[in-house]
Amino acid sequence: QAQLVESGGGLVQPGDSLRLSCAVSARTFSHWALAWFRQAPGKDREFVAAVGRSGSDAGYADSVKGRFSISRDNAEKSVYLQMNSLKPDDTAVYYCATGTPIPSSTARHYVYWGHGTQVTVSS
């Protein structure tokens, strides 16, 4: 069992930065990979980034590579998404997910999900 709570979303201008946080309450936190997905209005949920159990292996969607960075703190049981050079196309609800031992870009591989945090990029 796990509960995930995202925070850090908001309204920003193009080019700005935001840092999303996700607090995970789970005894087996360090055993699982973690990921961020996002869903824009009228679109399917899409993969953003994932990180393995040690935090040393991370993968990104092509659309965010070089701008976003995922990290985890096993002591704090948290995962973060640093988002730089934000674009209007990044506007979406961002979700963190866990519950699988191997990082994956496929949503159905993750068992536990947060409720999401809204990120809006607009001038």
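Above is the first protein from milestone M3; the second protein from the same milestone is given next.
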Amino acid sequence: VQLQASGGGLVQAGGSLRLSCAASGRTFSRSVMGWFRQAPGKEREVVAVISSGGAAYYVDSVKDRFTISRDNRKNTVYLQMNSLKPEDTAVYYCAAGDTWWITTTPRDYGYWGQGTQVTVSS
């Protein structure tokens, strides 16, 4: 089983990026999927989570700027990030969980991608 994250990069404040996470090896259509991030010197934090049914959760700092979505036919989850801020700079990780409902607890996610760097310049 592999989760392959892509789409990170360097962008100016106010810009946009779209992250993708393609899963292979098994289907995750019935699993919660999420995006987490970790900035230097900080703990990993949840960014957005989407249930198998499409319900979404966002951490307060990204509400109204980020949108999580999934395409079960492609076994892929996306994170559209708009109005990016320097404080969004981090390594972003996608993850697939063992439940179908929304959970923000990292230990509920058994599969993790390798991470993709997002850097927002001021």
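Note on the second protein: Residues 97 and 108 are 6 Å apart (CA to CA).
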